[in-house]
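Let's practice the habit of predicting before peeking. Look at the sequence and jot down your guess about where helices and strands might fall. Then scroll down.
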Amino acid sequence: MSITLDPAAAPVRARGRVLPFPITPAEISLIAVIALLWVVLGFATPAFLSAGSLIPLLVEVAPVALIGIGMTFVIIAGGIDVSVGGAIMVCSVVTAKLMRDQQLPLIMCLIVALVIGAILGLVNGVLIAYGRVHAIIITFGTANLFLFIGLQTFASQPVTGMPNTLAWFGRGAEGQTFGIPNSFAITVILTAVAWWYLRHTPGGRHFFGVGGDPVAARLAGIRVQRRILMTYVITGLLIGLASIYTLAKGTSNLDQSVGNGQELAVIAAVVIGGTSIMGGRGSVLGTLLGALLVQTVKSGVIQLNWPSQLSDLFVGIFIVLAVGTDLLRQRTRRSV
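Done guessing? Here is the structure:
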């Protein structure tokens, strides 16, 4: 048996071994679509290309793309995580209350959010990796558990009067470096690190093996359960950081809607970015581009004063096209 690794477009030689081409045709297509949309929207509504429009767009992209990095690991390894929204709620409300009541500094807020996110991810990972129950069943159950914990922590009252502790991650001047939102810059850096890890290290390529054929991966000596556990812990850590992004958006209040529907946005970005929902193939660069495309569509619909439902329609079309293309690619590969 052979282990299925990421089959990108045209392999090239590097240091004596064959590697996929750095950018896949799907990613090139996404870049072209995003560029075309920006040009069209720039002509249709010139305000779209202004700093006042692009900075909020990048701020909104950052948490979706950030969690999408972890979700890409999860889906590549053959899993799924629909508990993202509930996990964001728990991380956000606990951090917000401690930040307000205990006057936590920025570093401590980061530590609290990351630790809580890692614990929630660990719960998912242990149950999935060692409980041998399908990931969608486990994460659907923990989604409800996390929502219950979050709502109980809210105690039917929004968190009000939050200090401006997290302004460095916000959309104001303090949250920008050379005109680029710090949250988006960090997300790009983490995307580059994850891309390098998945592409250039044996440990990273093991995730593709686990998603492509877990039995073959186990026979090849890969610790499958450990790899699966890692994907959910990584996702939990990134959810913790994304909750910091959420708290830093500029409002001093946090209500029970935080995290609502976020798992759908993240999965849409990952799938549109070219990661196979069947596992064994994917790219965090594609996920970043997918998140940028989704937010560009939403922002464009708003600025054109079109009905907001159209953004859901367009995103749905992109998802269907991405999944359909992936299924055709797999069918073609099997028939060869």
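How did you do? The first helix runs from residue 25 to 44.
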